[in-house]
Amino acid sequence: MTALTDPLAIVEITPSAGVHTLTHGWRAKCLQRLIRMELPVPASFAVSADAVRAIAAGQIPDRARLAAIIERADGLVSVRPSAQNPAWGGPGTVLNVGINAACHARLAETRGKSAADALYLGFVQAYAIHVARLDPDMFSDSDVGLETALRSYEDETDEEFPQDPARQLAEVLRSMARAWDGPTARLLRQAKGAPEDAPLGLVVQHDSRDSDFSATRGWYLNVNNLAYREGLGGEADFDIYRVDYRGYWSHGDGHVLAWRNRNQFSHNAPSGSYSPIYL
Question: Which residues of 215-247 are buried (b: 16+ CB within 10 A; e: fewer)?
Answer without folding.
Answer: bbbbbbbebebebbeeeeeeeeebbbbebebbb
